[in-house]
């Protein structure tokens, strides 16, 4: 039952690192993944609209947007297969790869095991500091103001390598790898979870690197994945000349200021952890014009789905009142949301068993609080609802600075650890019900 | 002493209207003006760095900016002379045209008369409504998100037509037309005023269209041109993951919100009118990241230079304290400023006399409060300091909506009125002291 | 026609200064004025409800309030006539004194001339600094946290002394002195103006001391008395334990913070000067309780009545939206307002003529901008509406610090100047129509 | 070892309920407690300054304050022993009662067992609604705007009744009851904990009623008593006339608004629960004066002492920056703080054992999160530091509305339950050294 991959893990990860693409723009990334999956060889391969219903996407871009087109062109310029890129037009990125290896000997199907990894980068300009290892070793992001600052480059590497290793094993059953786009905007988890590929999952593994757990630690299953929603808002007022007629304006800039100040002031909740953030704001066109328009991208989270709903409702009221105070119209849109889910303890136990004895693993933590959000919860939730089990595991890595910062990096010693832990867990899950061993 | 122009005023104005360019990016505009000036024929023509010292510019762009380069390329694409555009590289736009017509008969130089018009557009997307005349008549802005929404297209038309008319007259002296760039950012007045071309002005006319004065009204000289400053600020904090570690951030978004709220709250002043505006704000990179950076473009004005200084100093303190409150660094820069100047009553009298009897002029208003700012005050101030006279006149126009709005338009009946009033005033000023007639 | 008073002006003024009382609580003050008026001897004397209809009062206190009762008791303790104080129960303070001296010789009534002075103090704790003259000379306020910091002590002195002087003159006509309460809250002008005593005023003088004009200057008539309104607001939310259940509160404190921030940010107006102030705020009961209630006392002003209406409407919206943002109810009440009025130039001319030649007068300023508000405008407005003339004059005084500060004081050299200017003006106005002389 | 009290519990509790007094003003309350303690009979009784060093008090009032004097007078009026009240002058309220019952048989001292109850009320006006039981049954608060809205009336009843019951038992050792003042402002815990009476506690019980646990539930020991600090701040600016010279003010009202808005926006912390509240604010003196002064009473809490320190430091920065932004001085004072402490599991076990079998107890919860703060932690911390054990237990009660609301009430069925649980626990703890069992 031993299984290995022959892929060159650091080479793969660095190639992904050099070409980060933001949510729903992973054209080059998807094309590259397709290439690697084909080279491994699978039974089913579904790309973009084949893998899910585009209408199920959350936080999706305007299909006709010039900006999306530019990402497509850039991907093609960088060598992505043009036909493949066109298939993803409008931002239908990502893929699903399936090994269908029912042994059929006993007339019974083997189990359906899934692995979910995410593939998008972030709008962060990667550090150009010589101290930053990707600079020193020459694989710094080549995409302006975009960076794999959350380790999804490592996740994709694991997705491919585990696929390769399972291919080479005696696994009997159905093994599906979800290369999910748009995790950072909570956009891709929902369509993946709604697709036929997510049907009948007996065991699902979702994985993340790092998150303040050092190289050598494996967390078998996280709890308290915060529920979250993404909120976009636009304030529309009336422009006017700031010198001649300030009174004729309905100032979207003031609505923005009021909204920011009050959003962070939404009361903390007795029932548990909540979060709120206005992450992006843009307003106005010139210093001497009363701003006619302001836009906001924000989010709210809660330790439970109820707490997220509390924050969402207060945030909506805050945005509406801020607009009203300054004579503006507010257009508030909940662009995506993801529920709270906890890992299944039994399947986490399978991971813990798998991690024990893996070379380089020093600590196996059964359970830990997550404290953030992840739209893997959509897939996990579906597995649970259909009677399966799901766990979200963390493979530790020494990272020099926090996730989502310009000098984030992954300790590549964690790459083979992740592959081995995941492969062993997938194979163990494939053998049948835990305890049947 | 009668003088006329043979230029087709509406055609000229509409051509400018179709190709607006923002401050310090008037490459196509300048090239087109040069073409027209050459066709009129002048004694001296100075373009960009020939017309002023680029170091004297205020609110100037980064010379190596890609964005400036794109405006240069666009100008060339639209047919601007490439060599001329390259001469303006880095954003050294605008020109000065001079008729040097000393008659020499009596061995004495004639007077130096100046006319200042401004040439830049605004970052406003022009209305596409069929009701909007430029749409109906096919001369809507062809530049995305940029518009002549303040009438500088009419100003340029006047500059050229008056030059043409004076050329055709018996004017004896030196007549300088300043086609000043970057008025909307108070950027071009200062370098023009510091240049040799502004030396020894006996009479200077600056002109504006409209400003809520209807077609048929001429205001001979405005008072209370507000002093103004433009302020840019950047808040630099610390990014962090909004879900995992909100406490690790120093939130530039919160600094921005605090700054906006408090900037508009700077106390009104007993000594007169003040203004403040945060016209543009941008902050953050993603909804789930605590914003590391926020930028602001704002302005402050005062009825007097002292009042402007009061507002500037309060605004600076506000921005600094907002940053400090949220653990951010504030980088506050005063990018430009212009003083308060009033029109010279005597020269305004010359304008009033000139306007009387002009066809289409129904009302001549001797003096009116301006209530806004204008960096023409730099040139006016220089003229006053060197013993000359300056007036800022308004040629009324029926405009359907306010200046700086998407449906602003000029009533073209005001075009010939402006030409005749200005030409008569220039010729009268050229004859010597008013009253000497 | 010369007229003088025999009253001891500094003694009178200092007596008033020692016993300041706030708006609608001038029980001791009124009683003292009645005593002095009786000692002068008048034809009609109307106190409190005799002088006006209590229902016409603005910003009036709750009639049954314990706090008003305490001011009544204090007045009685300090020696005020008890019966008189009871007559003013509920806060119906102030008085009107009338000399009715029609000469009847020609069967025609002489003119009706009025003088309006105000009588209330301010909630300011007077300085105890030895440098402060009232301390040094022993007439510092004996009322805790209350002070004549606006010079109404001088105004009352003038009211009495001019009454005395006119009594001693050959004035033929009706002379009414309005000792108006509650000017500081714009509360007493309206009922005085609505009363029968204000009917048929041919000439009305209202007077103020100081206002940054030095001893020796007289301003014959002010312009631009700002229109004003007083606004009270209460935010009602829901209290909750700040540690156990912050989410269960609807935080009136947050509504207050939002209201303050946004009130001062109401846009300046192109048409002229505006003002806004939140002068008093109180919220909450304990540091560990989410505040259930917050109250605000504020005001808005405008250079014109329209501008005041603009500010009032924006302020109301601001308060409503601030409440809504935090789930509170807002109860916003306009407790009083006063219109914009300008002095009549002709009657100001009478004052200017009167001031010329008065001992101690060095400068006579025909007209000056006022820049603040005054509910004398109600009386002025009535006079104008009924065909009479009104002027608001200023008798300068050197005051060491600003009005409404703890170290404000009046230069007593201005006391006799005021008496003589006013008496001469009243007598001149009494002679008949200007120009009829 | 059975012990009972003969006190009439509802009668006692209702008597306390009728006379609530706020922190450091419990003059009548203390006098009444002394009376009851004397009637029970104890070995040591220390009142006010005898019980602790007044200098150790936190959040103590100004000793010479008129307001404190008024509470003293009111207590005397209501029948409190005058000499006793004077002994507490300046606000040194509270008492300690001791039974010293060493049996001495074996020459060894018995254990020192403590019980801490708190005695202060809250500034809340008790509901006058007929539905509210204290109204219906005639024991509504007779103190204006003050109420036992947190159940301290029940706590005192328990303190007395357990003292009585232990007195009647065969308890051998030292039993100290701390009737602690000023819990609501975290003011009395510290001086009690520093006193000699708190020395050598082997077991300490602190108790609270209700807190959302119903009648019949006992929580044996709470965890997560939030660390807390109380913060007072004063902003001092410059007053000015809001109409004449708004620019001359340094507006403490604006500083207040900015402070409120930003205080609630202090970022949530990844490490756990935090709280912040501005509970009381007062600013300004008149609607037409720019406020010279504003005061704030606020608090911050954290799940750990470190988190409280984080909040405290951010809150201080917020207040300082808000002042600076508006040219004011900020005087920020941390008036009291209390640490995070958790109950000792072993001693909680003693409580759980005691609760089992008590009549009316339906549920015994071993441990529960507290989620609020309590300055009982000072005493608990001292016991722990000196090698003893402490637990904070909750005796459930059905309360119709939340603690700290106007309609809070205690279900009196919980009174005997509390007495029996506490008495049994005290006696069990008194049987010997932990571990000696």
**How many DSSP H or I helices of chain A?**
12
Mean pLDDT of chain A: 93
> What is the domain tally of chain A?
2
CATH architecture of the largest domain in chain A: 3-Layer(aba) Sandwich
Strand content of chain A: 15-25%
Q: Give the SSE order of chain A as H and E letters.
A: HHEHHEEHHEHEEEHEEHEHEHEH
Strand order of the largest sheet of chain A: 1-2-4-3-5-12-6-11
Classify the fold: give the CATH topology of the largest domain in chain A. Aminopeptidase
Biggest interface, residues from each chain: A-B, 60 and 60 residues
- CA-based gyration radius of chain A: 23 Å
Number of strands of chain A: 12
Helix content of chain A: 25-40%
Q: What is the end-to-end distance of chain A?
A: 13 Å
- Shape summary of chain A: globular
CATH superfamily of the largest domain in chain A: Zn peptidases
Protein name (chains A, B, C, D): Amidohydrolase
Organism (chains A, B, C, D): Halogeometricum pallidum JCM 14848
GO molecular function (chains A, B, C, D): dipeptidase activity; metal ion binding; para-aminobenzoyl-glutamate hydrolase activity
InterPro entries (chains A, B, C, D): Amidohydrolase, Bact_exopeptidase_dim_dom, Peptidase_M20, Peptidase_M20/M20A_hydrolases, Peptidase_M20_dimer
């Amino acid at each position: 039952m031993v299984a290995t991959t022959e892929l060159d893990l650091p080479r793969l990860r660095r190639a992904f690192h050099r070409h980060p693409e933001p949510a729903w723009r992973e054209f080059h990334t998807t094309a590259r993944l397709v290439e690697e999956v084909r080279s491994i060889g699978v039974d089913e391969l579904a790309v973009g609209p084949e893998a899910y219903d585009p209408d199920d996407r959350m936080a999706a871009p305007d299909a006709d947007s010039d900006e999306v087109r530019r990402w497509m062109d850039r991907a093609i310029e960088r060598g992505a297969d043009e036909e493949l890129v066109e298939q993803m037009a409008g931002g239908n990125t990502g893929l699903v790869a399936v090994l269908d290896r029912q042994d059929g000997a006993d007339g019974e199907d083997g189990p359906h095991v899934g692995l979910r990894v995410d593939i998008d980068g972030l709008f962060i300009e990667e550090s150009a500091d010589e101290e930053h290892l990707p600079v020193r070793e020459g694989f710094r992001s080549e995409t302006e103001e975009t960076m794999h600052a959350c380790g999804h480059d490592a996740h994709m590497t694991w997705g491919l390598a585990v696929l390769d290793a399972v291919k080479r094993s005696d696994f009997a059953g159905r093994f599906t790898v979800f290369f999910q786009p748009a995790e950072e905007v909570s956009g891709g988890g929902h369509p993946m979870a709604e697709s036929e590929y997510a049907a009948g999952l007996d065991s699902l593994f979702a994985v993340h690197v790092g998150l303040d757990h050092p190289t050598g630690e494996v967390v078998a299953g996280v709890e308290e994945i915060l529920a979250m929603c993404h909120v976009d808002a636009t304030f529309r007022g009336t422009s006017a000349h700031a010198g001649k007629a300030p009174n004729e304006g309905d100032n979207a800039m003031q609505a923005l200021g009021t909204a920011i100040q009050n959003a962070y002031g939404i009361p903390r909740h007795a029932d548990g952890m909540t979060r709120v953030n206005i992450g992006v704001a843009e307003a106005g066109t010139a210093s001497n014009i009363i701003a006619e328009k302001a836009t906001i991208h924000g989010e709210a989270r809660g330790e439970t789905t109820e707490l997220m709903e509390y924050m969402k409702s207060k945030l909506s009221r805050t945005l509406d009142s801020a607009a009203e105070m300054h004579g503006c119209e507010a257009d508030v849109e909940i662009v995506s949301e993801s529920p709270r889910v906890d890992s299944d303890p039994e399947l986490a136990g399978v991971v813990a068993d798998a991690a024990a004895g893996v070379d380089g693993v020093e600590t196996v933590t059964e359970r830990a609080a997550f404290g953030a959000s992840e739209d893997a919860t959509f897939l996990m939730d579906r597995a649970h609802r259909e009677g399966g089990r799901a766990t979200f595991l963390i493979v530790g890595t020494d990272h020099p600075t926090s996730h989502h910062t310009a000098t984030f990096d992954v300790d590549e010693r964690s790459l083979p650890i992740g592959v081995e832990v995941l492969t062993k867990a997938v194979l163990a899950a494939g053998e049948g019900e835990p305890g049947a061993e």
